[in-house]
């Protein structure tokens, strides 16, 4: 069943259109930076964007910081929100469930497909950004080996590559949390649009609450609390505190919302 | 499994993940029989104790002091995340963690280097006699020493111990005897053995602290030598600056000499500089001369606040525990500190009356 869902995902024109649209923004930013040579002022703009003018190999991280707060979670919400509600709205859910597979396996297959979408999107964005960064950005007159950590020390190329892949993996895990919420709402809502909007309202609300002092007591439980902690991978030494908390938080969200999806969907009457 | 049982499973999973982070807080702190006077002396003498950790500060002082002092407004009005490695007073590193970068201070003997990731620049300066507050002053051990500086045993009392960053820390309350300060009291909790303050809360009349600084992670083990060393990569632009900040620049180059005593408070530093820091502990003020253009900008910023008061001799703004006064007669001096308005106005009068030209201007 997982193979079927992955095949559907990869053959869908919408999948590739969505990925292309997400990829377009950081690419456009990279081209504009290269043409104008104007980076954001210190303290402004996404992480690493001010650094890419001197070190183009950091552009995959800047691209991640550009898409992670909004565009990627929107795409994941739409994709995962459609998992069950979309099938129901299209009238195909009944036929899917006729097959001799359990509903739990169907949910697992849907979550794996959503995760595959995240992995594909992140890798495409990172690969495109690397090409744009190396080809267009950076100070081409300076030949240096490695990069500079956020703390100002040297990072060798293997260290930079290793930490970049860790950052990509961390971003994927954060999006798995979004997918789990969307999957649950997809079992509740009658339309995929409702599930997607419900998921988006949760992470927009979470981002808003993080700015309020009054939400201090619950901020460590908010789903977006540690999304940008991947920057801590590039400090020296690595600051694991928020990364560890972020991993635990996302695993908890996946556990709770996947369990809720299972609890709701296992005996749900399916009439569509 | 019935629907009810499935939802019970979900409820149990949710309860476990919500409760798990709270469990460490339930571990009680060990009682301590250290006296308040003994704990005070350990806190005051903790400058050369090694430690490292992760600190969060939360300031509620909204200073409307313009661009020249914007760093100060951030220090006392924002939430900061700091990483600190402290070998002793001569070797330490304090990193201010930003969402998209880092601003670090590395201290080595008589030099301090400030590094800014987003500017890819490290600027080294010699340590000045007088400077404005910086992030290294906000880490709990430093803040503990600053606030208890000059405090007597009869101003402190014990508070129950609290568990902070896994350490059972006896508490201390400082209630300053001086009637000249705006600080009502300071509560701090310190490591009993080393005297390092682990949490400091500064109160100025309300039930909520105006400044809190606390270790979220703490280790009494000293840092590795490379963690307090100058290890910038070759891509970082290096520079040297004669001055650390506006107060240092004014102290070195402004042609004035401030009086030794204002409003009954003694000057803390020797020498004949143009800047004066007066008082001890939480009864403390600084007087800095400004150029006309800078003074005009600051006056405009101060008057932009509804709480600002224009007097015959200058402009006064009291924001929570911090009072700021900018003189308008004679030389332009800005005075700021955790002192009462009356003390600040008296100090301004003494500055205006007592400031002298120095060197070749005499």
List keywords for this structure.
heterodimer, A: 272 residues, mainly alpha, two-stranded antiparallel sheet, 66% helix, globular, B: 362 residues, alpha+beta, outer membrane lipoprotein receptor (LolB), chain A, Protein Transport Mog1p, Chain A, 2 domains, twelve-stranded mixed β-sheet, six-stranded antiparallel β-sheet, 7 helices, 22 strands, 21% helix, 36% strand
Taking pLDDT < 50 over at least 5 consecutive residues as the criterion, the unreliable ranges of chain B are: none
Secondary structure category of chain A: mainly alpha
* Shape type of chain B: globular
* Whole-number mean pLDDT of chain B: 90
Oligomer: heterodimer
Q: What integer value in Å does the Rg of chain B equal? A: 23 Å
Question: How many beta-strand runs of chain B?
Answer: 22
The ordered H/E elements of chain A are HHHHHHEEHHH
Residue windows where pLDDT falls under 50 for at least 5 positions of chain A: none
Largest sheet of chain A: 2 strands, antiparallel
Which structural class fits the helix and strand makeup of chain B?
alpha+beta
What is the 3D form of chain A?
globular
Domain module count of chain A: 1
CATH superfamily grouping of the largest domain in chain B: Lipoprotein localisation LolA/LolB/LppX
Q: What is the number of strand segments of chain A?
A: 2
Helix count, DSSP H or I runs of 4 or more residues of chain B: 7
Helix content of chain A: 55-70%
Task: Give the DSSP E fraction of chain A (strand runs of 2 or more residues).
Answer: under 5%
**Major beta sheet, strand line-up of chain B:** 7-8-9-10-11-1-2-3-4-5-6-12
Largest sheet of chain B: 12 strands, mixed
Helix content of chain B: 10-25%
């Amino acid at each position: 069943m997982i193979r079927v869902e992955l095949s559907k995902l990869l053959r869908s024109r919408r999948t590739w259109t969505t990925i292309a649209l997400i990829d377009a923004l950081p690419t456009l930013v990279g081209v504009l930076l290269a043409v104008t040579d104007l980076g954001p002022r210190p303290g402004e703009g996404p992480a690493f964007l001010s650094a890419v003018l001197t070190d183009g190999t950091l552009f995959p991280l800047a691209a991640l910081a550009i898409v992670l707060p909004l565009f990627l979670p929107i795409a994941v919400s739409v994709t995962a929100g459609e998992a069950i509600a979309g099938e129901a709205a299209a009238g195909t859910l009944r036929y899917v469930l006729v097959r001799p597979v359990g509903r739990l396996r169907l949910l697992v297959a849907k979550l794996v497909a959503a995760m595959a979408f995240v992995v594909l999107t992140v890798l495409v964005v990172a690969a495109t950004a690397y090409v744009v960064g190396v080809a267009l950005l950076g100070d081409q007159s300076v030949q240096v080996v490695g990069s500079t950590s956020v703390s100002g020390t040297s990072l060798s190329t293997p260290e930079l590559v290793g930490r970049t892949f860790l950052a990509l993996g961390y971003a994927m895990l954060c999006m798995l949390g979004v997918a789990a919420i969307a999957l649950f709402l997809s079992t509740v809502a009658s339309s995929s649009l409702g599930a997607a909007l419900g998921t988006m309202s949760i992470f927009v609300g979470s981002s808003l609450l993080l700015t309020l002092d009054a939400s201090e007591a619950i901020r460590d439980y908010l789903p977006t609390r540690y999304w940008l902690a991947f920057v801590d991978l590039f400090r020296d030494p690595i600051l694991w505190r928020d990364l560890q908390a972020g991993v635990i938080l996302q695993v908890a969200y996946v556990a709770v919302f996947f369990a809720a999806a299972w609890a709701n969907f296992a005996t749900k009457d399916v009439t569509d | 499994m019935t629907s009810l049982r499935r939802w019970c499973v979900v409820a149990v999973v949710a309860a476990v993940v919500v409760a798990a982070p709270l469990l460490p807080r339930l571990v009680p702190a060990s009682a301590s029989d250290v006296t308040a006077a003994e704990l005070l002396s350990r806190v005051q003498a903790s400058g050369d104790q090694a430690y490292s950790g992760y600190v969060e500060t939360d300031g509620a002082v909204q200073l409307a002091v313009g661009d020249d002092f914007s760093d100060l407004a951030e220090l006392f009005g924002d939430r900061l995340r700091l990483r600190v490695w402290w070998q002793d007073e001569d070797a330490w590193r304090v990193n201010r963690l930003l969402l998209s970068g880092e601003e670090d201070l590395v201290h080595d003997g008589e030099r301090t280097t400030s590094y800014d990731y987003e500017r890819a620049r490290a600027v080294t300066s010699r340590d000045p006699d007088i400077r404005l507050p910086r992030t290294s002053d906000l880490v709990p051990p430093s803040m503990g020493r600053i606030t208890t500086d000059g405090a007597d045993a009869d101003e402190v009392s014990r508070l129950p111990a609290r568990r902070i960053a896994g350490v059972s820390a006896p508490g201390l309350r400082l209630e300053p005897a001086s009637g000249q300060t705006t600080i009502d009291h300071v509560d701090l909790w310190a490591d009993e053995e080393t005297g390092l303050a682990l949490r400091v809360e500064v109160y100025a009349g309300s039930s909520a602290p105006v400044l809190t600084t606390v270790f979220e992670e703490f280790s009494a083990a000293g840092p590795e030598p490379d963690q307090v060393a100058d290890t910038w990569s070759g891509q970082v632009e290096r520079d040297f600056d004669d001055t650390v900040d506006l107060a240092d620049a004014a102290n070195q180059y402004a042609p004035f000499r401030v009086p030794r005593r204002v409003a009954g408070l003694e000057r803390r530093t020797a020498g004949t500089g143009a800047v004066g820091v007066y008082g001890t502990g939480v009864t403390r003020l600084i007087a800095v001369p400004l150029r006309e253009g800078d003074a005009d900008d600051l006056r405009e910023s101060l008057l932009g606040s509804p709480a600002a008061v224009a007097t015959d001799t200058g402009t006064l703004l009291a924001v929570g525990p911090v009072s700021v006064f900018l003189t308008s007669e004679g030389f332009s001096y800005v005075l700021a500190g955790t002192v009462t308005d009356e003390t600040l106005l008296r100090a301004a009068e003494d500055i205006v009356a007592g400031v002298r030209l120095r060197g070749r201007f005499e």
